[in-house]
Amino acid sequence: MTGVQGRDRLVAVVERAIEQQLPGGRFGVDIPSLAHEVVRQVRRQLAIERLQETAAKVSETLDGIAPARREEASREDGA
């Protein structure tokens, strides 16, 4: 890890961004905890979106396979 040791680099970037939005002071905000939670929520949402995309692809694949299987089964029944 370059630069920031022991912490996620993305969390460090988010911390700096939060600090820039609070130029007058921290106002009692625990910036490291807030940054960590923001990154956790974003990663969670990305994971959910990837799972939804994968589920859609699987569904499309199954939809394409099902007609072929039905045709195959009807040929076997007719033979």
Could you describe the 3D structure shown?
The structure is a single chain. The protein contains two helices and no strands. It starts with 8 loop residues before the first helix and ends with a helix. It has 79 residues and is mainly alpha-helical. The model has no long low-confidence stretch (mean pLDDT 84). It has helices at residues 9-21, 31-78.
Write a short abstract of this structure:
By secondary structure, the chain is mainly alpha-helical.
Give the helix/strand layout:
Layout lengths: L8 H13 L9 H48 L1
Helix pairs in contact: 1-2
Q: What is the helix content? A: over 70%
The count of strands amounts to 0
Rg, rounded, reads: 25 Å
**Beta strand %:** under 5%
Shape: rod-shaped
In N-to-C order, the SSE pattern is HH
Uncertain stretches: none
SS-based structural class? mainly alpha
Q: What do the pLDDT scores average to?
A: 84
Distance linking N and C termini: 65 Å
Report the sheet with the most strands, covering strand number, pairing sense and barrel closure: none
DSSP helical segment count: 2
Features:
2 helices, mainly alpha, 79 residues, 77% helix
